[in-house]
Amino acid sequence: MLAVCATPIGNLEDVTLRVLAELREADVVLAEDTRHTRTLLDRHAIRAQLLSYHEHNEAARVAELLPRLAAGERIALVSDAGLPGISDPGVRLIRAAREAGIEVTVLPGPSAVETALVASGLGAERYAFVGFLPRRAGELAALWTELAAWPWPVVAFESPQRLPASLRSLASAQPARVVAVCRELTKRFEEVVVGPAAEVAARFAEAPKGEITLVLAGETAPRDDAAARAAVAELVAAGTPRKLAAEVVGRLTDTSKNELYRSTL
Length: 265
Description:
By secondary structure, the chain is an alpha/beta fold. About 40% of the residues lie in helices and about 15% in strands.
């Protein structure tokens, strides 16, 4: 069996009981950086055999590990932080194991993406995750253009060294767009800075220290309440109960269903 295990994004106490149990029982633990993972194991008094698994040896490891999995070994896969396969190695082994009919289980846990989304106060019922931001200026500008009309929050990773340039690029394209810089999440010096892109870019004119996760607020288009009321009226005229019509149109247009109901009586 292959167990994909989420590990802490900062605070070593954030590991789940299921993950600790799996790491103790595994025949081998695949780690992106064995020294980093050894710190986690030592903290929780776990003795486990570690084997490196990263982007540079992933193909070779998959060929090596599939026969072991098929033979019944219990293998745990971890990354340096968070869940393997999300901007970290792991997808190739998971896919190969499934294709070979080997059981794959995922043990959820800490996530920098969701932690930043909640900590920023910019969360919504839907969001996009774009991984690490592009390094080239042209590609970064193209991404801002692509996201200009996206109505939901966007989460991205960025290195502290490239953060000032990326924020200046965003401020140049959309100076008023609200952005959150979430730094060192769950760690002692955690910091969340939220504000218009132009102001946040000035705040981080110099590269900070630590892990960075960015959250861009969704861009909200002006709401056309008149069109929403007209849509409710049309549905009612077609035989739809007013309450149901108001609920459906309200959900589609982000308009208060109660207001639509009252205003179309």
